[in-house]
Design a protein that fits this description.
With about 160 residues, the chain is of the alpha+beta class. The chain is about 25% helix and about 35% strand. The strands form two sheets. Strands 1, 4, 5, 6, 7, 8 and 9 form a seven-stranded antiparallel beta sheet that branches.
C-alpha cells in the first residue's frame, strides 16, 4: 500500500463551499436521520480521495443505496476512522486541544455518537466548525452542548498502487 497525505485545506475548502448547500453528487440525508456525517465524509474525501469499498465495514459512497454505514453514520464513521488499517483514510483519537484544520469532532450524548463536525478555523484557540443537518460554518465549538466531545485527527490515507 501507498500512503496518501491528507490535504487539510482541500477538506476545509469543500466545507466552506457546501456548508449551506448540498452537492448534487450526493444524496441529502436530512430527512433520514441527518446529513452531518455524509457532509463530513464528503469533506474528508475532498482531502483524502481514497474510498474503502469493503462491504459492511468500509467507507464509501456510490449512491444512496450503495454506501457504507461509515459514510453517513456518526458512530460507524468514528469506528472506521479509528480502526482502519487497510485502504482509505485513518485517524487517531485526539484531545480537542491538539486538533487542526480539517480534523473532526464527534459529539456524544452519553449513549452514542450522534453528530460529526469538521474544523474549519480557530478563534482564540477555540475550534470553529462546519456541519450539516443544522447547517453551520465557522460556528464556535462552545455553542454545542453534548455530554462530551471526541476528536478525530486525520493522519492520512492508504491506497493500493
Amino acid at each position: 500500500m501507498h500512503f496518501v497525505a491528507y490535504n487539510r485545506q482541500a477538506a476545509a475548502d469543500y466545507a466552506e463551499k457546501w456548508a449551506f448547500g448540498r452537492n448534487p453528487a450526493y444524496f441529502n440525508f436530512d430527512g433520514l436521520g441527518g446529513d452531518c456525517t455524509n457532509f463530513a465524509s464528503q469533506c474528508l474525501y475532498a482531502g483524502a480521495p481514497v474510498m474503502n469499498y469493503t462491504r459492511d465495514t468500509g467507507w464509501y459512497y456510490s449512491s444512496p443505496d450503495n454506501r457504507a454505514a461509515a459514510w453517513s453514520g456518526a458512530e460507524y464513521f468514528r469506528r472506521f476512522m479509528l480502526n482502519n488499517t487497510s485502504v482509505g483514510p485513518f485517524a487517531s483519537a485526539t484531545d480537542i486541544r491538539y486538533l487542526e484544520l480539517g480534523d473532526f469532532i464527534n459529539l456524544h450524548n452519553g449513549f452514542e455518537f450522534y453528530h460529526t463536525l469538521i474544523i474549519v478555523g480557530f478563534s482564540g484557540g477555540e475550534p470553529l466548525v462546519a456541519a450539516h443537518t443544522n447547517d453551520a460554518y465557522m460556528r464556535p465549538l462552545s455553542s454545542y452542548h453534548p455530554r462530551s466531545f471526541h476528536g478525530l485527527r486525520i493522519l492520512g490515507a492508504n491506497k493500493y498502487e
